[in-house]
Design a protein that fits this description.
Layout: E1 30-32, E2 42-47, E3 51-54, E4 58-60, E5 73-76, E6 81-82, E7 92-93, E8 98-99, E9 113-114, E10 118-120, E11 126-128, E12 133-134, E13 144-145, E14 150-151, E15 165-166
Amino acid sequence: LLQCMSNGFYSSDLPSCEPVECPLVEIEHGFPSTYSAVFMNSINFTCHEGYYLEGESGIQCSKYGVYSDPVPTCVPCDVDSYKTTNGTGNCDPCPSGSTTNGAFGSQTPEACVCESGFGMTEDGECEPCAFDSYKSSVGNDVCSDCPKYSTTFGYNGSTSVTDCWCGLGYFGPH
């Protein structure tokens, strides 16, 4: 019990109210917008390049000192996609005919290279190898012509020299 004494002072310290706090949180491959985690404050999260946010982008500190939602996570972009900026947005897919060659968490469109069977054009795009040509490797090389007197018989996008067959009237090992 708090009483005012005859000397003009209270019998004990005055009570004080302190804000409810939630624990500070951080996320791997990202960062929170603020480090103040008190009742009614929200923390918004951002992921680094090459990562997208899984979960709620913002969580609020409740009156019980716990967050309104689970802490989100930053997940690497899937194979064949990339993300060039920090943020909560999604990853962009590689253009048609290109791949990140099995890499996760790519940060630039340059990480997308032409698949086998696709060659780099003068415009910097990956297009299927034309008739009578092939490309067996992943990368931004151009397609190679089939050996002389051989053909892909009208098929494009060939991935191996073994897709080139001797033309009519010619024979050879295959």
